[in-house]
């Protein structure tokens, strides 16, 4: 999310709120609809097996249209997809990013390739 700070800042207008959302959105005072959407995003990211109609209904009750919910699902899922691809390829966070450094989850996957296959990605395979 850090790489998209400017977009979030355009929405909330305050650097302090951007940082609070990044660190723990559950601890800040935000409107119920935004909190429900963020809860939905977390559940879709971490507990997709437990998603059900109630999750969709909770967003509808907050005023989200089915089209907006579909947009949210596509966007959340796309970011999860890209993050998995980057993790699988051993991509490391940019050196000036605050988040991701200490977790150590961005080890290079190249060390798991058989010897001699280091350039497999450059061959377009």
Major beta sheet, specifics? none
Number of strands: 0
Instruction: Provide the gyration radius in Å.
Output: 18 Å
* Order of H and E elements: HHHHH
Could you estimate the helical fraction of the residues in percent?
Answer: 40-55%
Give a written overview of the molecule.
The protein is mainly α and 125 residues long. The chain is built from five helices and no strands. It has a domain at 31-112. α3 crosses α5. The longest helix has 23 residues, at 66-88. The two termini are 30 Å apart. 4% of the residues are buried.
Concise description?
The protein has 125 residues and is an all-alpha fold.
Set down the secondary structure blueprint.
Elements: H1 5-12, H2 15-24, H3 32-46, H4 53-61, H5 66-88
Q: What attributes characterize this protein structure?
A:
125 residues; globular; 5 helices; mainly alpha
């Amino acid at each position: 999310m850090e790489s998209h700070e400017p977009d979030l800042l355009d929405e909330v207008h305050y650097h302090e709120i951007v940082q609070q959302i990044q660190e723990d959105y559950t601890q800040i005072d935000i409107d119920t609809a935004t909190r429900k959407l963020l809860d939905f995003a977390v559940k879709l990211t971490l507990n997709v097996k437990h998603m059900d109609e109630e999750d969709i209904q909770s967003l509808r009750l907050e005023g989200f249209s089915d089209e907006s919910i579909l947009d949210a699902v596509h966007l959340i899922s796309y970011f999860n997809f890209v993050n998995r691809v980057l993790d699988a390829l051993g991509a490391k966070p940019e050196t000036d990013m605050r988040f991701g450094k200490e977790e150590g989850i961005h080890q290079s996957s190249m060390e798991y390739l058989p010897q001699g296959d280091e350039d497999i990605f450059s061959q377009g395979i």
